């Protein structure tokens, strides 16, 4: 099917893009187009105008400064998967980016488009939630009057295809703390064989001091409306040595944190996905702590 007719504008800067959004009701930002164009072809989205931000160099790039990793929203999954800076600072994100879709999707799809779209089946919302990432958002009038505001991952994802981004706002970059030497992070997913979308995804960052877990952030995604933290699991890990038995006992508790809104579809039922959440979480912590290794 062809998309409904639409106008096209190329933004010359972030502020130009914000201005164009504000002046044109229903207009949509176009980044890599790998979520938006399929939606338009299926007529699930019919924006009257697309505002192409693809040429905005100020929204690209990866840097590490003062213990902080910053990634421009237009940075592609392939650029993240190729980056030594990301590998060293946040190996969990580097590995997850490599596991997205196929080369075409990774070459065009952007980190900003991925999270702004907030498809529950994608990987990066879960990974960025456990990394405690911050989302830098540009609008006309921000909290500080300068037009920009910062939202934490726990507050950014609101539900399926719904984020804290306002109608006339643009996500410009994502920032996260560089992992410390005593922090271990991993993302594990049961991938859909045709697309690599997450049937179930699980992310974890554990801090280990003197063989004891002193802090933990875990989240699951792929089958829930938004990345879902596992406070029961986190509490059960902290204060314990991360042995196989302790990890298995803690990850089994994820069902307490899931609520009742798990999704199922023709590929996998909600019950199956819920059961797999504990397995993928255990898998992630085993890899993070060296109890299991990739081939
Ligand atoms: C075949 C296929 C397989 C895939 N497999 C996976 C997978 O395994 N794992 C995974 O995580 N994802 C997967 N994806 C999703 C892919 O990662 C996303 O489609 C892609 O990253 C979206 O980014 P984009 O730049 O193409 O966004 P676009 O399609 O251009 O935009 C998506 C939405 O976000 C908005 N938007 C984009 N950028 C911004 C911004 N900076 N500020 C505000 N709003 C913005 C747009 O207006 C639009 O509503 C797959 C997609 C396809 C087509």
Layout of helices and strands:
Layout: E1 7-10, H1 14-23, E2 28-30, H2 36-41, E3 49-52, E4 62-65, E5 68-72, H3 77-81, H4 84-89, H5 91-98, H6 103-108, H7 111-117, H8 124-130, E6 134-138, E7 148-152, H9 153-156, E8 157-159, E9 162-163, E10 170-177, E11 183-191, E12 198-209, E13 212-221, E14 228-229, H10 231-237, H11 244-251, H12 270-288
Parallel strand pairs: 1-3, 2-3
Antiparallel strand pairs: 4-5, 5-10, 6-7, 6-10, 8-9, 11-12, 12-13, 13-14
Helix pairs in contact: 10-11, 11-12
Flavin-adenine dinucleotide binds next to strand 2, helix 6, helix 7 and strand 10.
Enzyme class: oxidoreductase
GO molecular function: FAD binding; oxidoreductase activity
Keywords: FAD, Flavoprotein, Oxidoreductase
């Amino acid at each position: 099917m062809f998309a409904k007719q639409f106008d096209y504008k190329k933004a010359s800067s972030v502020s130009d893009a914000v201005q164009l959004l504000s002046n044109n009701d229903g207009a949509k930002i176009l980044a890599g187009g790998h979520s938006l164009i399929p939606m338009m072809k299926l007529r699930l989205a019919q924006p009257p105008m697309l505002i192409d931000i693809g040429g905005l160099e100020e929204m690209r790039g990866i840097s590490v400064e003062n213990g902080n990793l910053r990634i421009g929203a237009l940075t592609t999954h392939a650029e993240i998967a190729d980056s030594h800076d990301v590998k060293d600072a946040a190996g969990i994100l580097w590995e997850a980016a490599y596991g997205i879709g196929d080369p075409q999707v990774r070459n065009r799809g952007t980190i900003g488009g991925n999270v702004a779209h907030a498809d529950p089946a994608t990987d990066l919302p879960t990974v960025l939630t456990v990394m405690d990432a911050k989302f830098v958002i540009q609008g006309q009038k921000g909290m500080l009057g300068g037009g920009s505001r910062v939202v934490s991952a726990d507050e950014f994802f609101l539900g399926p295809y719904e984020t804290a981004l306002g109608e006339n706002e643009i996500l410009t970059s994502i920032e996260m703390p560089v992992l410390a030497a005593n922090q271990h992070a991993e993302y594990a997913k049961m991938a859909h064989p045709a697309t690599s979308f997450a049937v179930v995804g699980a992310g974890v960052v554990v801090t280990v001091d003197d063989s004891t877990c002193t802090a933990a952030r875990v989240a699951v995604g792929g089958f829930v409306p938004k990345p879902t933290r596992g406070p029961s699991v986190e509490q059960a890990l902290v204060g314990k040595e991360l042995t196989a038995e302790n990890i298995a006992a803690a990850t089994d508790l994820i069902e307490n944190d899931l609520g009742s809104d798990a999704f199922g579809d023709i590929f996998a039922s909600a019950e199956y996905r819920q059961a797999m959440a504990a397995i993928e979480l255990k898998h992630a912590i085993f890899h993070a702590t060296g109890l299991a290794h990739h081939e």
